[in-house]
Amino acid sequence: MCDVNTGQCSCRPNLSGRTCSVPEQNYYVGPVDILISEAEVSQCKDNCQVFIREPYRDGRENTWTGTGFMKVFDDTELVFDLGKIPATTNYEIVLRYEPQPPYDTENVMVTLDRLEPIDPNSTCAEYERNYNAGDIRSISMSPGSNVAIASPPVCLEANKDYKVKLNFQRYKNRTITPSASILVDSVVLIPHVESMPFFQGSPANEQRLEEYKRYKCKEAYYTVINQNIKNMPNYEICQKYHYSVGFYFLDGAFSCQCDRTGSTSAICDSLGGKCSCKPNVVGRNCNRCAPGTYGFGPEGCKACDCNSVGALDNLCDVTTGQCKCRSQTYGRECDQCEPGSWNYPDCQRCICNDIRTRANHTPECA
Ligand SMILES: [Ca+2]
Fold first, then answer.
1. Do 199 and 208 touch, CB atoms closer than 8 A?
2. I need a surface site. Which of 13, 137, 227, 273 has the fewest CB within 10 A?
3. CA of 90 to the centre of ligand 1 (A)
4. In this structure, is residue 278 part of a structural domain?
5. Distance, CA 65 to ligand 1 centroid (Å)?
6. How far is the CA of 184 from the centre of ligand 1 (A)?
7. Cβ distance 280 to 302 under 8 Å?
8. pLDDT tens-digit readout, 245-296
9. Is the pTM above the cut of 0.85?
10. CATH value at residue 144
């Protein structure tokens, strides 16, 4: 229904524009890649290690989510908890990763573990009856890409728990690159957009789907969505679809709630809701320090600046800024010897003569 004079439609909460197609100021449309399970917190059987990455310092946006990656080698298994599913529909299981030199294609077996059986009356039971898709997929992670999509989609039911298991398989003839590894960022569930109602059931809807596919609008969801989405080819055409898909899948728009301490503005990006953060601050709503920084406050966060010799890495305590010192090194940045020792960075006990043999003491001793 719309106003007979102005044509203004009556909008659902937090939407505006004549046709209610854009979120109100201070609101955003949720990204459909919201169901992200980070690899760095997944369970690893063996042969893998957590790989924390600090954000770029030159203004480039992160091309990964969470705090980093899980570095995996051959013959290992990662298990992801998918959390509660918001809506019963078909989802694509998407793997985000970064190839590592020496480059090689990695074959991955993807297994969906349903912790509860499929409700025989749900649309998922019907999907399985019709397509017999099963719960195991095989995908290849090629060095030329950073995303792999398990096909066909899996049907998941709202409010049920699922796990996804990834098995990285060794190639029989891998003699050239025995140490090949890959940085796995996350497993993402992307709803099967093509089966949403505004893409089906009428010639106009089918025309929309055709345009959506022709301009490859869906590809924006596969890699990490950030402000760069506006630079993607066809963004002008795809934007209306991104809004519609987000409204439908997540049932409306959300308040920005940019963190007052960590943000430079209360207004967020209308698609995806990214607030504008102060230096070294990260998170959709700018509520925490980036890895490698500490001291969340009105100025943003300060660099850890851990000493490259005296500290184990450049990650410090988010509150105190204390770096992780090697044995014997000392100080917030691990750039001194402990009291009672000397000769940084090869700190040694002073071993001073006591007062009765003062005549023999060395200059380093007090
Ligand atoms: Ca990650």
1. yes
2. 13
3. 23
4. no
5. 4
6. 7
7. yes
8. 988 888 889 999 999 999 999 999 888 898 999 999 998 899 999 999 999 9
9. no
10. 2.60.120.260
